[in-house]
Amino acid sequence: MICDDHTVTEESFALVKCSKCQLIFTNPRPLESELSRYYNSEDYISHTNNGNSLLNILYKIVRLYTLKRKVNLLSKYSKKGSILDFGCGTGDFLNSCQNSGWQAFGFEPDNGARGVAQKKITNSIYTDLEQIKNKFDIISAWHVVEHISSLRETIKLLKKRLKDGGHLIIALPNNKSYDANHYQEKWAAYDVPRHLYHFDQESMKTFIIQFKLKLVNIIPMKFDSYYVSLLSEKYRKDGGLLRALKTGYQSNQKAKKTSEYSSLIYILKK
What we know:
270 residues, alpha/beta, 9 helices
Protein backbone atom coordinates (compact mmCIF):
# COMPACT_ATOMS: atom_id res chain seq x y z
CA MET A 1 0.00 0.00 0.00
CA ILE A 2 1.23 3.51 -0.84
CA CYS A 3 0.26 6.28 1.60
CA ASP A 4 0.84 10.03 1.46
CA ASP A 5 1.95 12.41 4.19
CA HIS A 6 -1.23 14.51 4.40
CA THR A 7 -0.01 16.67 7.29
CA VAL A 8 3.18 18.32 6.06
CA THR A 9 4.94 17.29 2.84
CA GLU A 10 2.54 15.30 0.59
CA GLU A 11 5.41 12.83 0.05
CA SER A 12 4.54 9.18 -0.57
CA PHE A 13 5.68 6.16 1.42
CA ALA A 14 5.13 2.42 1.11
CA LEU A 15 3.78 0.16 3.86
CA VAL A 16 5.75 -3.10 3.93
CA LYS A 17 4.97 -6.22 5.98
CA CYS A 18 7.65 -8.42 7.55
CA SER A 19 7.08 -12.01 6.42
CA LYS A 20 8.28 -13.38 9.78
CA CYS A 21 6.58 -11.28 12.46
CA GLN A 22 3.85 -9.65 10.31
CA LEU A 23 4.74 -6.17 11.57
CA ILE A 24 4.06 -3.45 9.00
CA PHE A 25 6.61 -0.67 8.68
CA THR A 26 6.98 2.56 6.72
CA ASN A 27 9.44 2.45 3.83
CA PRO A 28 11.63 4.37 3.20
CA ARG A 29 12.05 5.33 6.83
CA PRO A 30 13.39 8.88 7.23
CA LEU A 31 16.70 9.25 9.00
CA GLU A 32 16.33 10.23 12.64
CA SER A 33 18.00 13.55 11.86
CA GLU A 34 15.33 14.27 9.22
CA LEU A 35 12.24 13.31 11.22
CA SER A 36 11.72 16.70 12.87
CA ARG A 37 10.63 18.37 9.64
CA TYR A 38 7.68 15.98 9.37
CA TYR A 39 6.36 17.30 12.68
CA ASN A 40 6.61 20.93 11.60
CA SER A 41 2.89 21.69 11.60
CA GLU A 42 0.69 23.84 13.82
CA ASP A 43 -1.97 21.13 13.47
CA TYR A 44 0.23 18.60 15.25
CA ILE A 45 -1.64 19.17 18.49
CA SER A 46 0.27 16.86 20.83
CA HIS A 47 3.30 19.11 20.38
CA THR A 48 1.73 22.57 20.13
CA ASN A 49 -1.69 22.54 21.84
CA ASN A 50 -2.52 25.55 19.62
CA GLY A 51 -4.54 24.08 16.75
CA ASN A 52 -7.99 25.63 16.49
CA SER A 53 -9.49 23.74 13.58
CA LEU A 54 -12.81 21.95 14.14
CA LEU A 55 -10.93 18.64 14.48
CA ASN A 56 -8.58 20.02 17.10
CA ILE A 57 -11.40 21.65 19.07
CA LEU A 58 -13.23 18.31 19.13
CA TYR A 59 -9.99 16.60 20.10
CA LYS A 60 -9.54 18.92 23.09
CA ILE A 61 -13.13 18.40 24.26
CA VAL A 62 -12.85 14.62 24.11
CA ARG A 63 -9.41 14.76 25.72
CA LEU A 64 -10.88 16.20 28.93
CA TYR A 65 -13.00 13.06 29.27
CA THR A 66 -10.34 10.58 28.20
CA LEU A 67 -7.74 12.03 30.57
CA LYS A 68 -9.95 11.11 33.52
CA ARG A 69 -10.41 7.59 32.16
CA LYS A 70 -6.67 7.16 31.68
CA VAL A 71 -5.91 8.22 35.25
CA ASN A 72 -8.64 5.89 36.57
CA LEU A 73 -7.09 3.08 34.53
CA LEU A 74 -3.81 3.44 36.40
CA SER A 75 -5.43 2.68 39.74
CA LYS A 76 -6.60 -0.70 38.45
CA TYR A 77 -3.00 -1.88 38.14
CA SER A 78 -1.10 0.04 40.79
CA LYS A 79 -1.45 1.96 44.02
CA LYS A 80 -0.71 5.64 43.55
CA GLY A 81 3.04 5.82 43.21
CA SER A 82 5.36 7.01 40.45
CA ILE A 83 4.63 7.24 36.74
CA LEU A 84 6.77 8.11 33.75
CA ASP A 85 4.84 9.24 30.67
CA PHE A 86 7.05 8.46 27.68
CA GLY A 87 6.39 11.04 24.97
CA CYS A 88 4.38 13.25 27.30
CA GLY A 89 3.81 16.05 24.76
CA THR A 90 2.47 19.18 26.43
CA GLY A 91 1.91 17.32 29.71
CA ASP A 92 -1.87 17.22 30.03
CA PHE A 93 -1.99 13.57 31.07
CA LEU A 94 0.86 14.02 33.55
CA ASN A 95 -0.89 17.06 35.00
CA SER A 96 -4.01 14.95 35.58
CA CYS A 97 -1.88 12.26 37.24
CA GLN A 98 -0.15 14.81 39.45
CA ASN A 99 -3.48 16.31 40.51
CA SER A 100 -4.65 12.80 41.45
CA GLY A 101 -1.72 12.17 43.76
CA TRP A 102 0.81 10.45 41.50
CA GLN A 103 4.50 11.33 41.42
CA ALA A 104 4.54 12.34 37.77
CA PHE A 105 7.60 12.39 35.52
CA GLY A 106 7.83 12.79 31.75
CA PHE A 107 10.03 12.17 28.74
CA GLU A 108 9.67 14.49 25.74
CA PRO A 109 12.32 15.23 23.07
CA ASP A 110 10.44 18.12 21.44
CA ASN A 111 11.68 21.39 22.94
CA GLY A 112 8.44 23.33 22.52
CA ALA A 113 6.18 20.64 23.94
CA ARG A 114 8.59 19.94 26.78
CA GLY A 115 8.65 23.62 27.75
CA VAL A 116 4.85 23.67 27.99
CA ALA A 117 4.81 20.43 29.99
CA GLN A 118 7.46 21.53 32.47
CA LYS A 119 5.34 24.52 33.50
CA LYS A 120 2.62 22.09 34.63
CA ILE A 121 4.72 19.37 36.24
CA THR A 122 6.68 19.62 39.50
CA ASN A 123 9.09 16.78 38.69
CA SER A 124 11.50 16.38 35.78
CA ILE A 125 10.64 16.16 32.09
CA TYR A 126 13.58 14.23 30.65
CA THR A 127 15.12 14.46 27.19
CA ASP A 128 17.38 11.39 27.37
CA LEU A 129 16.30 7.97 28.66
CA GLU A 130 19.87 7.21 29.70
CA GLN A 131 19.66 10.08 32.21
CA ILE A 132 16.74 8.50 34.06
CA LYS A 133 17.90 6.65 37.17
CA ASN A 134 14.53 6.28 38.94
CA LYS A 135 12.34 3.21 38.66
CA PHE A 136 8.60 3.62 38.23
CA ASP A 137 5.42 1.78 39.15
CA ILE A 138 3.93 2.59 35.74
CA ILE A 139 5.37 3.77 32.44
CA SER A 140 2.83 4.93 29.87
CA ALA A 141 3.25 5.53 26.14
CA TRP A 142 0.06 6.92 24.58
CA HIS A 143 0.38 6.67 20.79
CA VAL A 144 4.14 7.10 20.97
CA VAL A 145 5.75 3.71 20.31
CA GLU A 146 4.86 3.83 16.61
CA HIS A 147 7.00 6.99 16.28
CA ILE A 148 10.24 5.57 17.74
CA SER A 149 13.23 4.97 15.47
CA SER A 150 15.18 2.72 17.86
CA LEU A 151 12.15 0.69 18.87
CA ARG A 152 13.65 -2.43 20.46
CA GLU A 153 16.38 -0.55 22.30
CA THR A 154 13.82 1.89 23.68
CA ILE A 155 11.48 -0.83 24.98
CA LYS A 156 14.46 -2.51 26.66
CA LEU A 157 15.35 0.76 28.39
CA LEU A 158 11.75 1.34 29.48
CA LYS A 159 11.58 -2.14 30.95
CA LYS A 160 14.77 -1.44 32.95
CA ARG A 161 13.12 1.67 34.38
CA LEU A 162 10.11 -0.34 35.62
CA LYS A 163 9.98 -1.65 39.17
CA ASP A 164 9.57 -5.40 39.52
CA GLY A 165 5.86 -6.06 39.06
CA GLY A 166 5.46 -2.65 37.42
CA HIS A 167 3.30 -2.05 34.34
CA LEU A 168 4.05 -0.70 30.89
CA ILE A 169 0.95 0.78 29.23
CA ILE A 170 1.14 1.17 25.45
CA ALA A 171 -1.61 2.63 23.26
CA LEU A 172 -1.41 1.98 19.51
CA PRO A 173 -3.55 2.29 16.37
CA ASN A 174 -4.87 -1.05 15.13
CA ASN A 175 -4.56 -1.62 11.38
CA LYS A 176 -7.01 -4.55 11.56
CA SER A 177 -9.90 -2.27 12.59
CA TYR A 178 -12.95 -1.67 10.40
CA ASP A 179 -12.06 2.00 9.86
CA ALA A 180 -8.53 1.03 8.74
CA ASN A 181 -9.98 -1.38 6.19
CA HIS A 182 -12.61 1.16 5.13
CA TYR A 183 -10.22 4.03 4.45
CA GLN A 184 -7.27 1.96 3.19
CA GLU A 185 -4.38 4.26 2.17
CA LYS A 186 -6.34 7.30 3.40
CA TRP A 187 -6.60 5.91 6.94
CA ALA A 188 -5.31 8.77 9.05
CA ALA A 189 -3.72 6.50 11.67
CA TYR A 190 -1.11 5.33 9.16
CA ASP A 191 0.19 8.92 9.46
CA VAL A 192 3.33 8.30 7.41
CA PRO A 193 6.19 8.91 7.92
CA ARG A 194 5.67 9.98 11.56
CA HIS A 195 4.33 6.49 12.25
CA LEU A 196 7.26 4.21 11.47
CA TYR A 197 5.52 1.00 12.59
CA HIS A 198 1.92 -0.20 12.24
CA PHE A 199 0.76 -2.83 14.71
CA ASP A 200 -2.19 -5.15 15.05
CA GLN A 201 -2.86 -7.47 18.00
CA GLU A 202 -0.95 -10.42 16.58
CA SER A 203 2.17 -8.47 15.60
CA MET A 204 2.14 -6.73 18.99
CA LYS A 205 1.92 -10.05 20.84
CA THR A 206 4.81 -11.38 18.76
CA PHE A 207 6.82 -8.22 19.39
CA ILE A 208 6.58 -8.25 23.19
CA ILE A 209 7.67 -11.90 23.55
CA GLN A 210 11.31 -10.91 23.09
CA PHE A 211 11.12 -8.59 26.12
CA LYS A 212 9.60 -11.19 28.48
CA LEU A 213 6.73 -8.90 29.39
CA LYS A 214 3.41 -10.44 30.40
CA LEU A 215 0.34 -9.25 28.49
CA VAL A 216 -2.24 -8.57 31.20
CA ASN A 217 -5.07 -6.97 29.22
CA ILE A 218 -6.06 -5.28 25.97
CA ILE A 219 -8.49 -2.34 26.30
CA PRO A 220 -10.25 -0.43 23.50
CA MET A 221 -10.02 3.33 22.92
CA LYS A 222 -13.49 3.83 21.46
CA PHE A 223 -13.28 7.55 20.75
CA ASP A 224 -10.34 7.05 18.40
CA SER A 225 -12.48 5.58 15.64
CA TYR A 226 -14.42 8.84 15.40
CA TYR A 227 -11.39 11.13 15.46
CA VAL A 228 -9.45 9.01 12.96
CA SER A 229 -12.50 8.81 10.69
CA LEU A 230 -12.88 12.60 10.76
CA LEU A 231 -9.26 13.02 9.68
CA SER A 232 -9.58 10.28 7.07
CA GLU A 233 -12.65 11.92 5.52
CA LYS A 234 -10.66 15.16 5.35
CA TYR A 235 -7.92 13.35 3.41
CA ARG A 236 -10.44 11.77 1.05
CA LYS A 237 -11.96 15.22 0.36
CA ASP A 238 -15.33 13.71 -0.53
CA GLY A 239 -16.88 13.07 2.87
CA GLY A 240 -17.90 15.01 5.91
CA LEU A 241 -18.80 14.98 9.58
CA LEU A 242 -21.83 12.70 9.30
CA ARG A 243 -20.04 10.12 7.19
CA ALA A 244 -17.11 10.11 9.60
CA LEU A 245 -19.40 9.66 12.60
CA LYS A 246 -21.16 6.82 10.83
CA THR A 247 -17.88 5.05 10.04
CA GLY A 248 -16.59 5.56 13.58
CA TYR A 249 -19.82 4.10 14.98
CA GLN A 250 -19.74 1.14 12.58
CA SER A 251 -16.13 0.43 13.53
CA ASN A 252 -16.97 0.24 17.23
CA GLN A 253 -20.06 -1.88 16.63
CA LYS A 254 -18.16 -4.42 14.54
CA ALA A 255 -15.34 -4.45 17.10
CA LYS A 256 -17.79 -5.68 19.76
CA LYS A 257 -17.59 -9.04 17.96
CA THR A 258 -14.03 -8.94 16.61
CA SER A 259 -12.25 -6.88 19.35
CA GLU A 260 -10.54 -5.01 16.51
CA TYR A 261 -11.07 -1.44 17.73
CA SER A 262 -9.44 1.51 16.00
CA SER A 263 -6.92 1.90 18.84
CA LEU A 264 -5.97 -0.48 21.62
CA ILE A 265 -4.28 -0.15 25.00
CA TYR A 266 -1.89 -2.98 25.86
CA ILE A 267 -1.27 -3.51 29.59
CA LEU A 268 2.10 -5.24 30.07
CA LYS A 269 3.60 -6.39 33.36
CA LYS A 270 7.29 -6.82 34.20
